[in-house]
Design the sequence.
């Protein structure tokens, strides 16, 4: 199925009304209340328990456990569901869940890559097929989308989100939720989503996984909460609270975020599950009652206290640890939690199970599950998505596209590699599903040869240096292959295990001797391109200085090799843009386009300002929104429908974009605003619209963006949304730098 068939138009709004089921739930509510009235306290507490695949057994299913995650064998899922429905007293089905992040069996590009497409149709395709494959297994909840905004490339989980911008993140989040859930997630090919990690998990101190987060209220509301709000508005019915503490309060024990904001202010009537052992982690260390398991936050004394904190904060379902079940009755007896709160949590879980159709259709045809995986329409969509997600970072002297009639040497540790192409959080994807770069290129150019150069092994730390391109013993063979070819492709980057959860890096250069491999190939004088596979921005100054062409491919998924070949040979003209800033050096981090101003802006020619004395520039290597093409474009004629706007009115900005080159191609027109005078300093730019357009040579299109109070306003440090009178500057261009400018005035 073509991506265009899955989403109408090139862009979607970041938020909209809740799905229709929220307003047509009287029948569900009556069923929930009737079932709740029959439940004993033990049965209620069981519904709050969420087990991992290694914890579930017949006895637990018979007791009425609420949920199970990471079990992917459809025969076992069906077995445990039969036990729960047929042998438990109240016949309540289990909600099975899984981390379907960028595909289930048909693995699409990582979400950071898909965000590079600046095309919600890519996210829509991913989650449409992911939901179909996941649901066919008997799993009706996915722990995605991951919507954490992040300014931290050292953090491994930046790969799972949409990058550094809340608007782009909101658009992608909404598209994913709508695709996975549809209008009714009880449908056999749909699932309920769980946006995560609520909240501000993407900004850990030092970029270290699970580390603390501390920020102002206005920054939380303006930067980190919008993608969650967009996901909830799109209909997401569950959410996962975060491991991290926010301003000293852990995410799964945070009444402000879970109850005050999500449930009350946003009207969320689904349930919140904890992350893995996050309830137990509320305890101080060493752990007490039980005297084992996770601990650390120090906001609870022991297991019973952790259950009290989490339940009263708003966490409805406890993952892996068992404090709710173990101590719930004790806490009720001591009146530190209420039956009203227990009933609320159970009601939320049952509500989602009814909406998911589990009571009407609890079982899966496990014998047919495999036949619904990796189907041709999904694979074709994955190839198209990968091509649209790649970003051309450099193309000196027209190095690209390559000529398929000439010989090509495909070189590098990731050149003939299936395993790492799937990226982190690869679902149930299998290495053999993936097309290697070498195979993809050879399919389009039979005169392709291969040399590894050096090896990178996907291993958990501590990795000895020899496992990360630590030896140059293979360099002579790689140089010989390059010398024998007309053109060279270098496939370099990270292993899939170097990005993702618990994969923070203090050095984000190319691992090992890969730069030395680039230098060796450069010395041959042959034209070459570096194709990068990675889950985060890397520091690429040396690569930029030595390589004539650089293509950012991220981790492209099952169709990696074919999609890379499509772009390298020009069948697909790259049109992606960076959703995150690439620094010159790790010392610049955090560096992001939508930063707040300072009284002494950076100026490298002068001492007394916000600069680094050892960097000759204030700019990053590659800015947010940057990306090249095999053709050229001109953006012109920025026009505003009015130069004044009432506080509850709107202004439409239009701009023309022309393909001034000789090839058809895509340009992403981007609209930014800035409020130069406000009661709280506003970011120097804020993305408020984008549209990816395809243009033939010489063709011009007019693109329109409507701005209203949601665009020009902001949240203050009380979490209050305000629209202030004054000037709004407007910028239109092909990245977050430069572009056309105009302004209008917001009147009271």
Sequence:
């Amino acid at each position: 199925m073509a991506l265009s068939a899955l989403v109408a138009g090139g862009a979607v709004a970041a938020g909209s009304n809740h799905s229709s089921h929220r307003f047509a739930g009287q029948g569900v509510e009556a069923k929930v209340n009737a079932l709740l009235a029959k439940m004993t306290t033990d049965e209620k507490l069981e519904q709050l328990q969420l087990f991992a695949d290694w914890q579930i057994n017949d006895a637990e299913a018979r007791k009425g456990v609420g949920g199970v995650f990471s079990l992917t064998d459809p025969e076992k899922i069906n077995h445990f569901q039969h036990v729960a429905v047929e042998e438990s007293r109240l016949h309540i089905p289990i909600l099975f869940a899984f981390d379907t992040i960028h595909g289930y069996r048909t693995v699409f590009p990582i979400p950071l890559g898909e965000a590079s497409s600046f095309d919600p149709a890519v996210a829509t395709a991913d989650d449409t097929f992911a939901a179909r494959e996941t649901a066919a297994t008997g799993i009706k909840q996915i722990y995605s989308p991951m919507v954490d905004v992040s300014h931290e490339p050292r953090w491994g989980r930046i790969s799972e989100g949409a990058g550094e911008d809340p608007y782009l993140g909101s658009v992608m989040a909404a598209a994913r939720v709508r695709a996975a859930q549809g209008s009714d997630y009880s449908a056999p090919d749909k699932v309920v989503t769980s946006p995560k990690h609520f909240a501000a998990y993407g900004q850990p101190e030092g970029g270290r996984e699970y580390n603390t987060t501390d920020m102002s209220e206005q920054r939380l509301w303006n930067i980190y909460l919008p993608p969650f709000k967009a996901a909830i508005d799109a209909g997401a019915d569950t959410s996962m609270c975060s491991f991290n503490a926010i301003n000293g309060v852990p995410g799964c024990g945070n009444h402000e975020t879970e109850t005050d904001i999500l449930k009350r202010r946003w009207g969320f009537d689904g349930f919140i599950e904890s992350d893995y052992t996050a309830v137990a982690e509320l305890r101080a260390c060493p752990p007490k009652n039980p005297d084992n398991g996770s601990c650390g936050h120090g906001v609870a004394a022991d297991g019973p206290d952790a259950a009290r904190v989490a339940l009263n904060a708003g966490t409805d379902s406890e993952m892996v640890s068992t404090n709710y079940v173990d101590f719930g009755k004790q806490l009720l007896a001591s009146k530190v939690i209420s039956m009203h709160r227990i009933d609320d949590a159970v009601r939320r879980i049952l509500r989602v199970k009814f909406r998911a159709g589990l009571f009407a259709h609890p079982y899966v045809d496990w014998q047919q599950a495999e036949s619904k995986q990796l189907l041709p329409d999904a694979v074709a969509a994955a190839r198209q998505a990968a091509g649209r997600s790649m970003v051309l970072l450099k193309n000196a002297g027209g190095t690209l596209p390559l000529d398929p009639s000439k010989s090509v040497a495909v070189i590098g540790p990731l050149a003939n590699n299936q395993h790492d192409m799937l990226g982190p959080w690869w679902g149930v994807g299998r290495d053999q599903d993936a097309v290697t770069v070498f195979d993809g290129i050879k399919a389009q150019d039979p005169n392709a040869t291969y040399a590894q150069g050096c090896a990178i092994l996907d291993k958990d730390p501590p990795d000895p240096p020899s496992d990360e391109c630590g030896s140059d013993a293979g360099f002579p063979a790689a140089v010989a292959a390059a010398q024998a070819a007309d053109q060279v492709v270098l496939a370099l980057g990270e292993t899939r295990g170097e990005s993702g959860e618990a994969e923070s890096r203090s050095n984000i250069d190319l691992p090992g001797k890969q730069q030395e491999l680039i230098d060796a190939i450069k010395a041959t004088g042959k034209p070459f391109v570096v194709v990068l596979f990675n889950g985060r921005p890397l520091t690429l100054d040396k690569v930029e200085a030595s390589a004539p062409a650089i293509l950012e491919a991220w981790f492209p998924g099952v169709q990696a090799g074919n999609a890379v070949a499509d772009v390298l040979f020009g069948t697909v003209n790259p049109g992606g843009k960076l959703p995150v800033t690439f620094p010159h050096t790790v010392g610049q981090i955090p560096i992001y386009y939508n930063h707040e101003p300072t009284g002494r802006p950076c100026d490298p020619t002068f001492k007394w300002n916000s600069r680094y004395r050892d960097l000759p520039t204030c700019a990053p290597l590659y800015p947010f929104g940057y990306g090249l093409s095999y053709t050229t474009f001109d953006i012109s004629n920025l026009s505003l429908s009015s130069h004044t706007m009432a506080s509850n009115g709107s202004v439409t900005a239009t701009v023309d974009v022309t393909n001034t080159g000789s090839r058809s191609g895509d340009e992403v027109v981007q609209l930014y605003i800035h409020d130069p005078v406000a009661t709280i300093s506003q970011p120097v730019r804020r993305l408020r619209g984008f549209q990816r357009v395809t243009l033939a040579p010489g063709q011009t299109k007019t693109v329109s963006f409507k701005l209203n109070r949601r665009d020009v306003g902001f949240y203050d440090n009380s979490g209050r949304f305000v629209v202030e009178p004054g000037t709004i500057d407007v910028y239109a261009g092909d990245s977050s730098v430069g572009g056309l400018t105009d302004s209008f005035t917001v009147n009271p």
